[in-house]
Amino acid sequence: MSNGILSRNIRKMVQYNLRNTFYDYQNHCGTSCSTIKCWKWDITPVILMHNKPSLRYAVLILNRPISQEEAFMKNFWEKATLRITVDGGALRWDQFLTRLPEEISNKMKIPDLITGDFDSITEETLQKYKKKGCKVVHTPDQDYTDFTKALKELNNHCQEHTIEVDNVIAIGQASGRLDQILGNIQTLYLAEKQHLLHPETKLYLMSGDSLSWLLEPGNHIISIPEETRKHNRAWCSLVPIGETCHSVTTSGLMWNLDNQSLKFGELVSTSNAFDGSDTVKIKCSHTILWSMKVPSLTGE
After folding, report:
1. Helical H runs in the chain?
2. Which of 170, 221, 243, 281 is the most exposed place for a label (fewest CB within 10 A)?
3. SS3 191
4. Is residue 6 very low, low, confident or very high in pLDDT (cuts 50, 70, 90)?
């Protein structure tokens, strides 16, 4: 093995990033032990991602107001490996830039890709970014949302230009039209079920001061940032989408679940909170949506 290949392998082994860690372990119960999937999650890097140049991530701006703190958003965008605006998201990005001093906004990097069916972006904005050299991909297929199609184009772009990203963070708002909010959650599921991204690339939805992602069946250990643990209104939720999660057991929450079922029309764990522990542990039988508050995203 060459020194270059060895160095890359070592770097991948030790690289500290937001990508979740997966491992199998066996119950100590004799020769008939079952294998249980377990993931470790630490979202702290997403808060400080712009301070970690070794991290590789893509940012997608969806067509919702950008409510994150300006300094965070500016650095988050500039340090990204890949920057994409999705249809009217280009307008939202333009609106964000107008809040910055002109000498700063003029130096901000342009989107690497603008995609969508273009029913929300204005022709003026589209032509403006075309003249700046942005790659524009029209995706008229109405069977999928612009968010879903953008993930496909992101993956195509990465393959075409030999770009690797470990994390994709879509920035939107969980407010406004309920059908669009549900559509964004649907995209999280489609990304997993239809393998829209590289198998090792993880997808997160950032909305205001919260992060959401899917927890697949198995065990999960989620590190809780100190700022969240100490915030007196920090919340979290575990929501089953599309199917019953027949068994959920947790620790580290204010209201823990003990081998209980989560199902719409019965029990759904919204507006939960943290008990101050460093980690939350979750064991689930089916995929659920996990969301949690991260105060610094909006400057709290």
Report:
1. 3-14, 44-47, 70-78, 89-98, 102-105, 123-131, 146-161, 178-193, 226-230
2. 243
3. helix
4. very low
